[in-house]
Amino acid sequence: MTTFGPRRPAARRLVSRWVGALAAGAVALGLMVATPTAAHADTAGNTALPTVQIDGVAWSQVVVGDRVYVAGSFTSARPAGASAGTNLTPRANLLAYDITTGALIQSWAPTLNAQATAIAASADGTRIFVGGDFTVANGASRFRLAAFDATTGALVPGFSAKADSRVRGLAVSGGVLYAGGSFTSANGVARNRAAAFSTTDGALLTWAPVVNATVTTVAVAPRAGGTQVLLGGWFTAINGQA
Hints:
About 0% of the residues lie in helices and about 40% in strands. The protein has strands spanning about 15, 20, 25-30, 30-35, 55, 55-65, 65-75, 75-80, 90, 95-100, 115-120, 125-130, 135, 140, 145-150, 165-175, 175-180, 185, 190, 195-200, 215-220, 230-235. The strands form seven sheets. It has a five-stranded mixed beta sheet, with no helix packed on it. The protein has a four-stranded mixed beta sheet with strand order 1-2-22-21, with no helix packed on it. The relative contact order is 0.13.
């Protein structure tokens, strides 16, 4: 897992009046990056920075201040430069590292019983939202969505959002958590692969586009004041429109 400076690949976007489909996203070494606060990792823009390594796959990461939170499918982490299988620290599909030093943050170690495929931070940076295939988080039942304290890694009490199948994309705008995936219900109510929840308690909101196949990525357009949501994935129709 390697962090680079601000160079980003170009993206093509197909945008409808109310929801966009990302034809190609910003991807760096398999890691989708969302940055709710500015991160200063490499001012030169070309030098690879050493970071903590993992024994699996990192699917998504989000930056809050000097911390990078990582979601994926892995069981352990090791320092940069350490040989595979040596100097291991257990990590169950989630970890955090310091963006300046690349070192693992020892105090943030929540656990999931299956992979995490999406991660996002609350607007104030105090909560980390995670989506994926898991059904248990920190030993408690959490069905494919969970919220963790950004400092301690503890589950946020009272946050009850859930989905009946994989969550693959997350985005936050103000007090709203947008989710996309392969699910057909959220909090026990019909939702066709896209849903919105309160970031406070996970309550299901009325936003309910009908998507005909899996959503793999979600973003919010800031220029519209958070009122336009972009979806990307394997679908060919939204609300009956091609």
